[in-house]
Amino acid sequence: MDHLDELEAQSIYILREGFARLKRLALLWSLGKDSNVMIWLARKAFFGKVPFPCLHVDTQKKFPEMYAFRDHYAKEWGLDLKVDFCPPVEEIDPTLPPAARSAARKTEGLKLALAKYGFDGLIAGIRRDEEATRAKERVFSPRGTEGGWDVRDQPPEFWDHFNASVPPGAHLRIHPILHWTEIDIWAYTQRENIPIIPLYLSKNGKRYRSLGDKDITHPVTSNASSIPEILAELHSTKVPERAGRALDHETEDAFERLRVAGYL
Amino acid sequence: MTILVSPSVVPHAPTDERPQVSIVIVGHVDHGKSTLVGRLLHETGSLPDGKLEMLKAVSARRGMPFEWSFLLDALQTERDQGITIDTTQIRFRTPSRDIVLIDAPGHAEFLRNMITGASQADAAVLIIDALEGVRDQTRRHGYLLHLLGVKQVCVVINKMDRVDFSQPRFEDIKREISEHLTGLGVTPAAVIPISARDGDGVAHNTPRIAWYKGPTVVGALDTLTPTRALTELPLRLPVQAIYKFDDRRIIAGRIEAGRLAPGDEIVIMPAGKIAKIKTVESWPNTPLNGPQGAGRSVGITLDRELFLERGDVIAHTATAPRDTRRLHARIFWLHEAPLKTGDTVLVRIDTMESRATVVAVEKAVDPGELTGVASTSIARNHVGEIDLSLARPAAADPYADNPRNGRLVIEVNGRIAGGGLVLSIDAGQRAVPVDIVPVESALQPQERAARHHHSGAVLWFTGLPGAGKSTLARALERRLFSRGGSAILLDGDTLRAGLNSDLGFSADDRRENIRRLAEVAAHLARNGHIAIVAAVSPAAEDRAQARRIAGDLFREIYVSTSAEVCEDRDPKGHYAKARAGGLPGFTGTGTDYQPPSAAALVLDTATSPILQAIGEIERMLLESHVLQQEPMDIAAHI
Question: CA B347, CA B339: separation in Å to the nearest integer?
């Protein structure tokens, strides 16, 4: 078994555990490369047919290519697609700063969908290598009745035994690709020949490294116009890609925060 | 959503030439874990360009001495802002290994987080402060590494600069920790004197530790090996689920040990049923030829329809695990309330789960204490040995024989509360499955159907005592016999007098009673007879099991006569006895009967006469093609 085989076997195991141990399961389909890999893994786990709904909580601000992809492959892959819309930003707490207020739409949309369908398990395509809070995640991660996550009070999880009991009104998040990296995702997409949205590939010297809402997702400079080229780019680039912040400024900031936290 | 990852610290996808090894760094708080990580990242060239110089410059500008642990904290903070790398899974390279460091050290010291991280690791680095020596958390972490099955351990004795690089001090600590670890069956791969702050012993053996002749930390990490899949051990395929998405009946699971291939003769434990693997199913290409080894998530089909369920273990006939209801295990305990003799818990071994009673607690100690005081309960963060009595038989192995099928977790209130290793099992009384060779009937089902004018079925009458189940069952038996059929009555009480005379009325015994009834009935039905079962069978779960055993042949008939009418009739005098307190566990006066929700028929004998009820059953059997049209009807049409 090679590295990708091991990742795949582990993800399939997690998906099957979720399906065996929860009653009303749904897979969150964000249409991006990670959740497309996840759907592919679910088809492997269940021999071609995804036996639970795929839920797209739609901000209605995605790229047209993403909607086209969704509608085409939902049909081709025989998915039980459920599309639910996020409430308009006007309905969100106006005291929140603009970015937080926009992000809160998704959280609210998800809450509405949970209430509507009564799902007790949501399969989500997050990865540990994405950000700090995600790195602290468990594979089966309980959420409170308000959808909240108590990072300080997580039950232990070991030897692929997962905490699957759901208190009334709460739900579980299940993370089948938590242990994958961005490179793993692309290498597997390549090996399995999984369809991708063309926005990931370079056009006029730019490509999208991740896909979200139109207004808050920006392309990066890249000439990678195929998956092998993306992989080569991820392997070889020396310059860290970041959200336009000066490194030294951030380091100063980091020190400030450490001081506040009493480190020095 | 996706945060950019700094490419300079993301290694290539590992190849066979560069094994990927996951490690954890454990040990007492403040013994220098973060400093070691910072130094390792630097010495292995894993830092983004210019990062170190920048941190040093900022430290100097602020008039603070530079510390290596800043590096980790700075990276952590940056990542919190979505900029650079994953500090909870830091990756770096030694000359021939890709190392993944699980769980950033220096943060919350919760044992449950250490366990969650270390359980995923191939190896561990145990760090000890040369000044402070072996502390309680050092011993506790050492003990947990043993219980988690982490066999590769490197010990580093840090802050040697604080003890003037004293070789005697190093040897003292080395002796103490080595004794502790070897006592647990863990032999340290290396014990290394280092100063993480100054760099001695990390990537280079400096003159200050000239007396030390062993490997550096980087050198020791470079010899670690990934945990091997247990391909060479006997096959263990715990059943995760049975899928019937199409006309295939696929048994899904992950091969925990050994290998399998189409055509293999297998045994399903703990029941001991034998079958052959027909195909290995997959997607998009199916079926797969050739063997599949440990670590693979697979789906197989068998050459015959057998009842099996999640939690069963598929093995080869010659090397099957024994089935047991008694386990002796060494465990660690994380729950607030101590684990005591007599406690009821939920035990999981692979995909099997069973209620269990703690029969005995031995050797309960705090593994951090030097001289543990044995106790009769296991407190939080302590370890001990326990005897467990399982409510259902399990196919477990001793850990020494099979690490994957020989470890268990314990749940309390739906939350993982502890875990550990199976030290030994007490075998059940069952025959060795290799001796069991099923013999199929000489007759084909259609031969019997041609004679009896019906196909096989299990008619399962459920309802309160006195509801009229036996009366209906007997009348139906007579009716089917008179039209040339072969109907056989299996009355719950009658079987309790013989086949099931070893069973009482506890939930487990009731379950076993129903299972045996269902197995006998299903056997008759598969051979073309109509098995008529009359049993109170109050638990919906038990009837669901019967339905699974009999499969498509199963017809549930709910005799819904009300409790008042049943008590009024009281044909066996049970209600009167129960009211007088003489029949504990009697169903009827209590509220423990769970009515079926999807019965094929519902009959109330208080309102519909027997003949009418029998007519309804016949109609149902005709409609579902168990009964063929009356032979005389066919004759009339010729």
Answer: 13
